[in-house]
Design brief:
The protein is globular and about 45 Å long. The longest helix has 21 residues. Helices cover about 35% and strands about 20% of the residues. β5 and β6 form a beta hairpin. It is of the alpha/beta class. The strands form 2 sheets. The chain has a 6-stranded mixed sheet, sandwiched between helices. A 3-stranded mixed sheet has the order 4-9-8, with no helix packed on it. The protein has 5 helices and 9 strands.
């Protein structure tokens, strides 16, 4: 067991084909990254609890999977939604982890907020308490679900830290020249995001082929 883990989750193709395709496309690349950087890799396809029956209930499996990794004793836990891509394979994702939970401040017309599509975490008692409190808010309000509940809790304490946009540089919203992780959050429906990710991934493969 390494001291760090990268976690991703998607619903099976019969439930959400676009997100399943996003994750399937990048599993090999992400495994290669983790092998080279001393990370364990957990790519989970499917539900993790009966109450989180499908994507309509939000991405609550994310919270369960992060909490489980913390309980397993990982010092560093990095979460990346399927609609993200690691751009800089030479960067250490541990460097994005503050003392607590790191998230980028996402500036969109609907609501400025800490975006949970990429989370960078260092294990601590305070982080465990935050995760338990987050889980306790299920199912959350319909509009923002686990994302909204995360932000409510973040406003109440200092566990959540705003980190550089380079750790979740979101296309058309918060791009930076030194991006480590590129996010596609909010860029159209899942099918549209999948197309954007496929185009970007093909460019990455052309310049940095798997196995190089």
């Amino acid at each position: 067991m390494n001291n760090a883990v990268l976690i991703q989750h998607c619903w099976p193709a019969e439930v959400n084909a676009d997100y399943a395709a996003m994750l399937e496309m990048q599993v090999e690349r992400n495994q290669m990254y983790c092998d080279g950087r001393g990370f364990d890799y957990r790519a989970v396809n499917g539900n993790v609890k009966p109450e989180y029956s499908d994507p309509v209930s939000g991405e609550w499996p994310k919270v369960e999977l992060i909490r489980a990794a913390i309980e397993d004793g990982y010092q560093y836990v990095v979460w990346l939604d399927p609609d993200t891509l690691i751009l800089d394979m030479n960067a250490d994702l541990r460097d994005g982890c503050p003392d607590g939970i790191g998230a980028c401040w996402h500036r969109i017309p609907q609501m400025n907020h800490w975006n949970t599509g990429a989370l960078y975490i260092q294990n601590s008692v305070a982080v465990c308490d935050f995760m338990d409190a987050w889980l306790a808010t299920f199912p959350g309000e319909r509009a923002w679900m686990e994302q909204g509940e995360f932000n409510k809790l973040a406003m109440q304490n200092k566990v959540v830290q705003t980190i550089s946009d380079r750790w979740n540089a979101t296309l058309n919203y918060s791009m930076v020249p030194d991006a480590v992780v590129l996010g596609f959050h909010g860029n159209g429906d899942p099918a549209g995001r999948l197309r954007l990710i496929q185009e970007t991934y093909q460019k990455l493969q052309a310049t940095e082929p798997i196995g190089a």
